[in-house]
Every structure is written in structure tokens, then in C-alpha cells.
Design a protein that fits this description.
Elements (H helix, E strand, L loop, with lengths): L1 H10 L3 H15 L3 H11 L4 H11 L5 H12 L3 H14 L4 H10 L4 H10 L4 E3 L2 E3 L2 H14 L9 E2 L2 H10 L8 E5 L22 E5 L17 E3 L20 E3 L20 E3 L10
Helix pairs in contact: 1-3, 2-3, 2-4, 5-9, 6-8, 6-9
Length: 287
């Protein structure tokens, strides 16, 4: 508050404008001193329509100076810790620490060491055994992913936005770079319909969350050999796939409320499977 009060008194905005701007900056910064200082120094000098426009822009385009400073801690990480940071920022924020560590361990990321490093660098916190991350730090991580191939989400290593994931899948622009995807296709959020020729080229995929998958099965070329978690609740699948698949790395399979599911897949090669959730699969029968 002292930081914002300094800029407010310096530029002498009308009281109502000053209060509105201060409140919006605080909501965006969420207590991060760096963000308060950068935004306070740059926005209080602007007219009301301008600072409103800048704050609206920040929702989709992070402030470069804030990102640059936050990224210094990220750049100092080794590759394993960077992978852990990216996976948490894109997929596992507010998830159970123990569950996430099992996934990361199966990916070969040494999460005990990596998560300790992220905690020491204040890139991550743990509360009630949940992994927590400041929104601006999370946004910095997503921006690092986007900047590797700007405007080409099919080449990103993580599709952490349902909008980007569904767009890439519809346009068939996915590449071998993708290692994680999160897609939510609920009627209220995103109406996506795939043709029968839909392809799925995610050979390196380790984590797949897809809520509301609309087809009757996964494409025949779907390759889960590196998959650690398959999480597809409320889907329209009748049968995931036919025949055997290499499922050696699979630990978690969540198919809850798949009311059209008639048959479970062949899991004879899922030798490391720890959890299979079939709650609400009302049409499922056992041969």
C-alpha cells in the first residue's frame, strides 16, 4: 500500500480513479512487491482510459519487465527442475503434492530434489499438501512455453490452455514436442467436433487430461507408451482402444462418469498401474 500511495500522491489522480487503479493493481499483483512497483510507476501517470486498457491487456500479455525479473530464478534451474516447474505451472497447480510427485518421478524428473529447489527459490509454496504458485509466476512459466514458438501452439511442449489444446487438435498441427495436454470440452465452454479422420500424434505424451472427449474411442494410432496419467472424465467413449497397448509407465487412469463406456481396455501390460477410477460408468459390463 505504501508503494502505491507514493505513486498516487506523486501524480495526483482524482480520488475515485486512484482508488480504482490501486485496487486493480493489488488484485493483479497479489502482494508481489516487484509487480506493485513496476505497475505503480508506469500506470499512475496515465489517463484513466489508458491504464484501464493496460490492465486489461495484462490478462493476455504479461508485463515484460515483471516477467524478465521473475524469469531470472527460472533460468538458474537445471533442466530437470525446469521441467518440474513447467509441469506444475501448466497442469498441477493446487494439486496434491504426493500425487504429482509420483507422476514426476515416473517421468524421471527427480521431484524430491526439484521441488525443494523451487521452494528455495520461492517459485513454489506448499499449503495443506497442495502445490501453490503465485499467478504471475505461473504466467511467466506459460509465457516461456509460448515464446519457444510464438503463435504455433502445436510446437509447444505443454498445451496447458483448453483453448490452445482444442485448436491444435482440430487443426492437426501437433508435433512431437508436446509432452502434456489439458483439454476441457464442456458444452458451456468449448464446442469442438472432430471428424472420423482425427489423428493423435502425441508419442511423447506423459500426461493427458481431457474432460468431455466427444468421440467413441481414441484414434487407432494413439500411442500411450510414455503416458503416466490418463484422465478423461465425462467422455463419450464406448471403448478406449482395441487390442494391447504399451502401458508400462501408466500409473493412473481416471474414466469416471463415462456413461457410454461398455468395456475396459486391455490393461495386461499396465504393470505399474496404481489407480483405476470407474465411478459412474453405468453402462460398463464385464465379459
Amino acid at each position: 500500500m505504501e508503494v502505491l500511495g507514493h505513486y498516487s500522491s506523486k501524480h495526483k489522480l482524482p480520488n475515485d480513479d486512484s482508488m480504482e487503479l490501486s485496487k486493480r493493481i493489488r488484485n493483479y499483483a497479489q502482494g508481489l512487491p516487484l509487480a506493485l512497483k513496476v505497475l505503480g510507476s508506469s500506470l499512475f501517470r496515465l489517463e484513466k482510459p489508458e491504464w484501464r486498457s493496460h490492465l486489461n491487456k495484462l490478462k493476455s500479455c504479461p508485463h515484460p519487465k515483471i516477467n524478465q525479473v521473475l524469469q531470472i530464478s527460472y533460468d538458474e534451474l537445471d533442466n530437470k527442475a525446469k521441467n518440474i516447474f513447467m509441469d506444475i505451472s501448466c497442469f498441477f497447480k493446487e494439486e496434491d503434492k504426493d500425487h504429482v510427485m509420483e507422476i514426476l518421478e515416473a517421468c524421471g524428473f527427480f521431484p524430491i530434489c526439484g521441488i525443494r529447489t523451487l521452494l528455495d527459490k520461492s517459485l513454489l509454496t506448499i499449503s495443506n499438501n497442495k502445490l501453490e504458485m503465485h499467478d504471475l509466476i505461473q504466467e511467466m512459466g506459460m509465457e516461456v512455453v509460448r515464446q519457444k514458438s510464438p503463435g504455433e501452439p502445436g510446437k509447444w511442449s505443454s498445451l496447458c490452455s483448453p483453448t490452445y489444446a482444442s485448436s491444435v487438435l482440430k487443426k492437426q498441427t501437433v508435433t512431437e514436442e508436446v509432452e502434456g495436454s489439458e483439454c476441457t470440452l464442456e458444452k458451456e465452454e468449448c464446442k469442438v467436433h472432430f471428424s472420423q479422420n482425427f489423428k493423435f500424434h502425441y508419442d511423447d505424451l506423459r500426461y493427458l487430461f481431457w474432460h468431455g472427449y466427444s468421440m467413441k474411442s481414441l484414434p487407432c494410432e494413439f500411442n500411450p507408451e510414455n503416458l503416466v496419467e490418463l484422465n478423461m472424465p465425462y467422455n463419450h467413449i464406448k471403448q478406449l482402444w482395441k487390442g494391447e497397448k504399451d502401458l508400462e509407465k501408466l500409473k493412473f487412469m481416471e474414466l469416471s462418469h463415462s456413461k457410454f463406456l461398455e468395456k475396459t481396455p486391455d490393461l495386461s501390460r499396465a504393470t505399474n498401474l496404481e489407480q483405476l477410477v470407474l465411478e459412474g460408468c453405468t453402462n460398463l459390463h464385464v465379459d
